[in-house]
Specification:
By secondary structure, the protein is α+β, with helices and mostly antiparallel strands. Strand 6 and strand 7 form a beta hairpin. Bound molecules: flavin-adenine dinucleotide (FAD).
């Protein structure tokens, strides 16, 4: 990626701001909140995110008309690079900023945009994603949660599951069946629902890491306003797919730069323990580095593709986000496995009772989820098979 003098200046501004501000009460947050450590210092990280927002460092890629900076892809990458280099803490407003915000910009009404985008940008309201249900995960079109109109409100009944961060969020963007008797993707609507109301019950689910990043969420007569449907009522499938596209696309750039930081730490750890002298581990560390470079180059090439020159609707573009998702999920899982090998036998034992894991153990365990959420590896391969290779769709049992 070619960097212009303006980009270099942008980099200096980001770096200076982080150096000046990730200090004092925020200094202790360095490195907080990575995979499997989302419980760490939530309130402090929220305060830090609001500090970022006040200085204009959230929602960089949003158009200026919607409160963003209209930052180029290069500048977004630079921001994430500097953020990772400064060891700044994992952001808490990710789902609003990277998933719902772009969806509202594309499909929301002007009133919805005015109501919600400023609060996402300021990190005043946090969002969760209510797609998956006990009977609808990979097969998302099987959503059974219903919403029915009662005057000027939707009344929602059903259950969502694996809902990340639902226990700390204010709102949920969700898929619900609003046309009784409808099947599959037809008759679904994309609703914005307040979480803090008596009809919503959130139950944390304890994960392999010992922490509870996700939850079961029960909607029992929960309510939201009639006009809080994004896109047309009944057309929620199209909107939901657009959100998934954002989730698998640009939003992964910041994450990949976080991976670079993890690999850097692992290399340092391997040097410290002497594991770096082992020829097999050296080879694996080198391969991890090569994998990271290849993955990043691929992501940048795909995301920077000029919509006017290439074939933006062609098969490669349609499957591009799936290729990125497949590459990073496997890479990250293998990094977790490599971290265990670098640590050797002690990696199999918790540091203390009852279940006190170190960062590498948490990374290893949490990264098992990488090939599941955001669409499992098998689902990404199905997308590549049908959209890029033109193979026939699988029969449904
Ligand atoms: C850490 C984590 C966080 C999550 N956060 C959220 C969230 O915030 N909001 C949300 O809505 N959801 C969230 N999810 C849920 C996630 O999207 C689902 O787990 C995922 O879509 C898979 O659905 P499932 O768990 O029902 O598994 P299933 O769909 O039952 O799949 C089980 C297995 O069968 C395979 N399989 C299923 N169908 C096919 C097929 N057609 N062809 C080949 N193989 C197939 C799958 O790949 C998988 O290996 C999260 C999940 C995890 C692990």
């Amino acid at each position: 990626m070619q960097l212009s003098p303006e980009d270099e200046q942008f980099r200096r501004r980001v770096r200076q701001w982080l150096a000046r501000n990730l200090t004092g009460r925020f200094a202790a947050l360095r490195g907080a909140g990575g995979p499997g450590r989302e419980h760490e210092a939530h309130a402090e990280r929220l305060a830090w995110n609001r500090e970022l927002a006040a200085a204009g460092w959230t929602c960089l890629g949003w158009p200026p008309g919607h409160g963003g900076r209209g930052a180029t892809l290069a500048q977004q990458v630079i921001f994430h690079e500097e953020y990772a280099r400064a060891d700044a803490p994992t952001r808490v407003g990710y789902l609003g900023e990277e998933l719902l915000g772009p969806t509202l910009i594309a499909f929301g009404t002007p009133e919805q945009q005015r109501r919600f985008l400023p609060a996402i940008k300021a990190v005043d309201e946090l969002w969760c994603q209510g797609y998956s249900e006990p009977g609808a995960g990979s097969d998302l079109a099987a959503v059974a949660t219903t919403a029915a109109l009662d005057g000027d409100q939707w009344v929602i009944t059903g259950q969502k599951v694996w809902t990340s961060l639902a226990h700390v969020t204010d709102w949920c963007f969700m898929l619900a069946r609003t046309e009784p008797g409808s099947r599959r993707g037809a008759g679904l609507s994309y609703l914005l629902v307040p979480m803090r109301q008596s009809g919503v019950t959130v139950r944390p689910i304890r994960q392999l890491t010992g922490t509870a990043e996700f939850n079961e969420v029960f909607f029992d007569g929960a309510r939201t306003r009639r006009d809080l449907v994004v896109g047309e009522a009944g057309d929620g499938w199209r909107v939901a797919m657009a959100t998934l596209g954002f989730e698998r696309g640009v939003a992964t750039l910041g994450q990949q730069i976080g991976f670079e930081r993890e690999l850097g730490r692992l290399v340092a750890e391997a040097r410290r323990t002497g594991a770096a002298a082992d020829p097999v581990l050296r080879g694996k560390l080198a391969r991890a580095w090569i994998g990271l470079e290849a993955m990043r180059a691929h992501a940048l090439r795909t995301l920077a593709a000029d919509p006017d020159s290439a074939d933006p609707d062609g098969p490669a573009a349609a499957a591009g986000a799936s290729v990125i998702k497949l590459l990073w999920s496997r890479w990250h899982q293998q990094l977790g496995e490599l971290a265990m090998e670098v640590a050797g036998a002690p990696s199999m034992v918790a540091r203390g009772a009852p279940y006190d894991l170190d960062d590498w153990q948490r990374l290893f365990l949490f990264s098992r989820a990488d090939t599941i959420y955001g669409g499992s590896d098998e689902i990404q391969r199905n997308i590549i098979a049908t959209r890029a290779l033109g193979l026939p769709r699988q029969g449904r049992p």
